From TrEMBL:
GO terms for cellular component: proteasome complex. PANTHER family: 26S PROTEASOME NON-ATPASE REGULATORY SUBUNIT 11/COP9 SIGNALOSOME COMPLEX SUBUNIT 2. Belongs to the proteasome subunit S9 family. Residues 1-20, 30-51 are annotated as: Disordered. InterPro entries: 26S_Proteasome/COP9_Components (IPR050871), PCI_dom (IPR000717), Rpn6_C_helix (IPR040780), Rpn6_N (IPR040773), TPR-like_helical_dom_sf (IPR011990), WH_DNA-bd_sf (IPR036390). The keyword Transcription regulation does not apply. Pfam families: PCI (PF01399), RPN6_C_helix (PF18503), RPN6_N (PF18055). Keywords: Proteasome. This is PCI-domain-containing protein. It comes from the Eukaryota.
């Protein structure tokens, strides 16, 4: 057994009980070189040493991940470059992706990830490792999106797309167009978001699209259809994505798709279907999670048309409902609709009603209720006038449509047709 293998075994035994000692041993393994300068080292021993170093790199990365040490993980990725120079390019790309994935569970690690990615992109460019560079740039664009840095994300995507079209790499092209669609959706530019998604699907159709990428495309399609208020089509896309991610074991993605499916049911006024949906096999394991319970609370409030319960759900599940921009924006529209319905229910029996009384009944501030009533009158949701001097709302019956003028205009139109017909006959005789 080689010396690096002995050290690796020792470090693995200390990894849980004495992480500091294990860290030192892993670094010793990485500093050990088994290159051509060592005449007594056979090719077999050298290959084994490289394999041990690769294992040490991954284990040290796991150690820093478990200890939430983003800077230590960044150092591991930098240290790995000397090892990468001795390995195949495909293996290098896989290794660096594995190490970068360790950042995901570390909170507030985005700035460190961005710095590490920029540094490694420059290194890959200098080493002429084009595929690795493109892979890292795609990942960097995704982190810019997650941190809402839309402008640098679009700048990077534009340069990356130009390069990918020239190389005709359909797989990465699909991924980058998908990120582009999500970025444009984040900026509110829906036409460009749809165009980018169409480009992503076009590129995906010309290759074998991996299930996880297909699920991501379906999820984005559902989000864009939901933005257009086409919740029925959006639901079908979310369901496809949910099933696909569930079969792939992607629990985080499945949960997101399930929440969007529940949102669609609520927006379609089918709140009673929420419990039925949660009883299906793939969804049952998520039914007791707070993320799902938050949507169930919203569905109950919407079904009962209860504004107070709706607000309570928004307060009790603030983190679960506010962290996702898609759910946040649609629930804001739903709250607005629910407020309108409650205001209509309160003012309909009256011809004159005090604004203060209406505000008390819906549990809102007077100024907010007054502004909402004014908007509803302008939108002709109901007919009335706000008397701000008296602090009252005057509610009118819906005016009957007088068809007298309409009938007269129709008669004149018919007379015009008769005159035109007679004139045409006269021209023919002449």
């Amino acid at each position: 057994m080689s010396s690096t293998a002995d050290l690796l075994k020792q470090a693995n035994e200390l990894k849980s009980s004495k992480p500091a000692e294990a860290e030192k041993i892993y670094k010793r393994i990485l500093q050990h070189t088994a290159g051509p300068s060592e005449p007594r080292t056979s090719n077999g021993e050298r290959d084994q040493s490289l394999r041990d170093q690769e294992t040490a790199l991954v284990n040290l990365g796991e150690l820093y991940r478990d200890n939430k040490n983003a800077e230590g993980l960044a150092e591991v990725i930098t240290l790995s470059r000397s090892f990468m120079s001795s390995t195949a390019k495909a293996k290098t790309a896989k290794l660096i992706r594995t190490l970068l994935d360790f950042f995901t569970p570390i909170p507030d690690s985005a700035p460190t990830q961005i710095r590490v990615l920029k540094d490694n992109i420059e290194w890959a460019k200098n080493e002429k490792r084009i595929f690795l560079k493109q892979s890292l740039e795609t990942r960097l664009a995704g982190i810019y999106l997650d941190t809402l840095q839309f402008k640098p994300a679009l700048t990077l995507i534009d340069s990356l797309l130009t390069e990918l079209r020239r190389l005709d790499d359909k797989m990465i092209l699909t991924e980058v167009h998908l990120i582009e669609s999500r970025v444009y959706r984040g900026t509110g530019n829906m036409p460009k978001a749809k165009a980018a998604l169409t480009s992503a699907r076009t590129a995906a159709n010309s290759i074998y699209c991996p299930p996880h990428l297909q699920a991501a495309l379906d999820l984005q399609s559902g989000v864009l259809h939901a933005e257009d208020k086409d919740y029925t089509t959006a639901y079908s896309y979310f369901f496809e994505s949910f099933e696909n991610m569930g079969n792939q074991g992607d629990e985080e993605g499945s949960l997101k798709a399930l929440k969007y499916m529940l949102l669609c049911k609520v927006m379609l006024n089918l709140s009673e279907d929420v419990n039925l949906l949660l009883s299906i096999k793939l969804a049952a394991k998520y039914a007791q999670l707070r993320e799902v319970e938050s949507m169930r609370a919203v569905a109950r409030a919407h079904q009962n048309r209860n504004l107070a319960d709706f607000e309570k759900a928004l307060r009790d599940y603030r983190d679960e409902l506010s962290s996702d921009p898609t759910i946040r924006s649609h629930l804001a529209a739903l709250y607005d609709t629910l407020l309108e319905q409650n205001l209509l229910r309160i003012v309909e029996p009256y011809s004159v009603v005090e604004v203060e009384y209406v505000a008390q009944q819906v549990g809102q501030g007077r100024q907010e209720v007054e502004a909402k009533l004014s908007q509803m009158i302008l939108d002709k949701i109901f007919h009335g006038v706000l008397d701000q001097g008296r602090g009252c709302l005057l509610v009118y019956d819906e005016p009957e449509v007088d068809n007298s003028y309409g009938a007269a205009i129709d008669t004149l139109a018919q007379v015009g047709n008769v005159v035109d017909s007679l004139y045409a006959k006269t021209v023919k005789i002449a």
